[in-house]
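Could you show me just one protein sequence together with its fold in token form as a worked example?
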Amino acid sequence: MGEPLSSFIELVGAAGRLGKKRGAAQAGAPARAEADAAERRTAVRFPIEQEVRYKVFNRNTIELGSGRTINMSSNGVLFTTERTLSPGERLEVAVSWPAHLDNHCPLKLVTSGRIVRSDNRRAALSIERYEFRTQGIHRPF
């Protein structure tokens, strides 16, 4: 795809690093459990709620599912699932992206990685790879 899209992801990552430093200075001392969780995160999460389709890669099968993002960062995606996913499972997650290419063509962000945390039909994916793909132009009949 082009440089503008990968530059956008880099910009989101840079904004996350700056936001984390700025937020830590302004927030004061949070509760110990929250501080431990925040220290593990290397990027700020953005509350992006979009449709998600995912594939779970098992040994001999591929399981399909859908849900919605809860939040995203340059390192991961938290999303709802149809069933509880297990940490370590490999997934491909496609997120309907809110921006359009040339203001016309819908995009999707396709990520792959592993589940690092899961509870009550919510899962956190650690992003190992990503790319933007077009979804095609939808025209009314």
Q: What stands out?
A: The longest strand covers residues 105-119. The first helix runs from residue 3 to 27. Residues 3-134 form a domain with the Thrombin, subunit H fold (CATH 2.40.10.220).
